[in-house]
Amino acid sequence: MNDENSAKPARSSARLGRFEALDKRPVNLDGFAKEDHEAGLVAFASANDPEPSVALDSGGRVGGLDGTAARDFDLIDAFIAARGLDAAAAEEANGLDDVAFARLIVDPNVPRAEVVRLAAGATPEKLARVVALLRPVELQMAVAKMRVRRTPSSQAHVTNRLDDPLLLAADAATAVVYGFREIETTVPVNADAPSNALAVLIGSQVGAGGALTQCSIEEALELELGLRGLTTYAETVSLYGTEKVFIDGDDTPWSKAFLCSAYASRGLKMRVTSGGGAEALMGAAEGRSMFSLESRCVALARAMGAQGVQNGGIDGASVVGCVPDGMRELLAENLLVMLRDLESCSGNDALVSESDMRRTAHTVPLFLAGSDFLFSGFGSIPRYDNMFGPSNFNAEDLDDYLVLQRDWGVDGALRPVTEERLREVRERAASACLAVYRELGLVPRPGPLRSSTTIGFTDDHVAEVVAAEGSKDVTPPDPQAILAAADAIMERGIGILDVVGALWSTGYEEEAGRVLAMGRARVAGDYLQTAAIFDEHMRCLSKATDPNDYQGPGTGHEVAPERREEMAAIRQQRSRDDLLARHAAGAPGPAASPGAASPAAAAAEAGAASPAGLSTTGVASPAGRHSVEHGTGTTAGTTSGTTHSTAAGTTRGTATPDDTTPPPAGAGSAPPTPFRLIERGEAHPGTDPREVCVGISPAFATRLWLTMSGLPVTEALAQIIAGIESEGRTARIVRVPSTVDLGVIGLTAARLAGSGVGVGLQAKGTALIHRRDLAPLACLELLSIAPLLTPETYRELGVNAGRHAKGLRPAPVRNPYTEQAIEARYHAEVVSLVAIERGETVPGAPPVDVEVER
Amino acid sequence: MTTPADAGGPANRALSGRRIEELTLEAATRGELSPDDLRVHPDTLRHQAEVAEAHGNPQLGENLRRAAELTALPDDEVLAIYEALRPGRSTAPGLEAVASRLDAVDAPLCAALVREAAEVYARRGLLKPG
Predict the structure, then answer these.
(1) Residues of chain B with CATH 1.10.1510.20
(2) Model-level pTM?
(3) Between A84 and which of A80, A146, A150, A422 could a Cys-Cys bridge form, CB atoms 3.0 to 4.6 Å apart?
């Protein structure tokens, strides 16, 4: 075999199968860089980071900072030195041992205020060194203690590829109904910005009031939209950690500080944006570590008088993510902000990885610890519609997020939403937006002579928007119409009062009141305080009104009982009653005729479309408790009732008499039909050596009617009987009411069988073959993965039982195998099924013969 | 300490002088409100500055005091000053003119910020050659 021999060396030089498989994993689409101190590709502690130091002159002014004397200060040093450090605490803070300082930050017994006092005196490099010492779990402790606001909150991105105003409004309302308290929009087409700001403002006040909105665009236009009241906050005032990059960004700390004051002068909340990696990305990191530079940014933010900072996972997140310790650095950035007593809008913004596992691992530590804003942009719209680029979590992840919140009992600031409620708010938001655009003359109004109007601004478009997942599902609006609307907003100086008036006169009085309340809020000015948000009752929560008071277990933000209930009530959760209702619906109704779909079965079918195939719809009264009539598959491919296919999670349709669906492969000859189970009295051992007993569980076809694979329990039974009979044996059915233990059920059946061979079958569909001389747990064959069992497997099990009864040794029926989290899918249901079976047991009751009446 | 403006403290008026409780939907829909009725009053900003300082953030306090000064300036002038402070936009005399103008409208904190910028810009080469 020369070929084989010559192939061997080639095989040994080929890639190992293990690596070939690993190469295809999503994480290997991510880029990873070797640390490079000169390029600033290092998370913490570059060789070029300065030594922390502070020098105070005789007047108590900062005359030297982190190794630089006043005469050599760059813009950033100069601004921080002028007003960023508390000179009274500077010598104390900078004299503290790094480890001792780090322990003060983590220790719940050291009051938050004391840590804030010391941090205010710490130079940027000092704070960077100290925080770099914290391990991940210590960072979490520190974040829980140091964040400013007690109540966590979150921000959403609301954008779309088309700048479709109606869709923006519907999606803003969607974000609010999920619980987001800030909404950030932006544009693919710059000139559309005023229209986007208006649409998001309208949508944000549907469903509940008080959500803040912003439109991220060029500074001057952003400020102007804010001045007009079309937005209520700003956060795209970017800071950088080196002078070069700052100037490349066409600003200085003084111009940015002035901008901060400009926003505040019009009553607008604002925060600044920074984040590690930006300087390295711009090729001007001065060889310093990302964390060292970020610490300068945060110190600068405090010095400028900004109330908050967005960092730790913004645009440069993937630069940070590519180096060792990168994810820890991102979390540590958030903590720097909290230590400077500023609002943390905590990143989780840019998508950091192609790997679901890795991007989740980035978010979870902060999510568990809590933050002022857990996301500085959860992509509340589908990934493709996010004009900031996809976020680390997106609309596609909302259910995952809600489940994580429920899993951990952690307040992630969101709540489950019903389809009905979502439809309602989307409809109202899109309609209100259309009404305002028409009322303000931003788009032509439909008149008596013109029924058709501009594409994208019609009632039909409202309907499309309500139903849409995202912009790919709607007719693209006329882009010229959007531009014209945006231009008109600018040229005519449309502002918040125009919006209030238009909402009011088109019948959206509640929304008019809420928009006006946002205007009134800026007159009051309370939301200029650190970490301010409005709750849905327009209460202002901030450092002044809702300070974080975490001091260890039993303190800080508590998940109140009502909130816990809200978080728990995800739309996928089911109770035992829900399960019984579904089974009752699967039970044959008195009028059920063979092969015909009953209304109850149809209802169960409708319910089967819900997640995890669990149904809540359709409650039908079960048939007589111990008398079952059920049409099983009478002709090939025709099943009555509902069949859920298992692994793929799809559902097969309810068959009708004229159904032409081909039969499942290997179904064999159809079992007899229909039959009725009638209990006839205590069962005694049989003597016919051809007899195989099938033992059924207490709730089998009394309260439980469907196996876990969605088969009617009677069909599973019929298939087993047919299999036994195909081997020339007879099947005798007994109910074993005294136990839920399938081994005992099967063994009891075997001991009653003339052949000594029995089959055990639970209502949930698990089945086995037993023999009378074996121990209860030592059966001959076991089909354990009930959710994957098909009519054919039950038929094969029956055949094998027949062969065992003949004294043969058949090849065991193979259990189906799946890589899926089959237990995660079904164990919640199993608990209920077993509890129901147990509820039906009668301890000590003897087995009972069950007659199958055909 | 919590909601000072709504609580009817000294700073409960809009820039126009209208009382905050008069900012009703009825007034808005009767066309009685103007943009200045929805603008923050400098006294309110100074009050919020005090709140920030009382909560240990003098820098936020200073920012809000600068903001109070800027309420006197129209939007376009505010934007023009921002533009003047961007790198390489202004000569030294140009920035001094901005500072003088700010002094003239009783905005000393803003004026000081601009003069400080002028000094640092000169040292760091960020002034427009005059």
Answers:
(1) 74-130
(2) 0.88
(3) A80
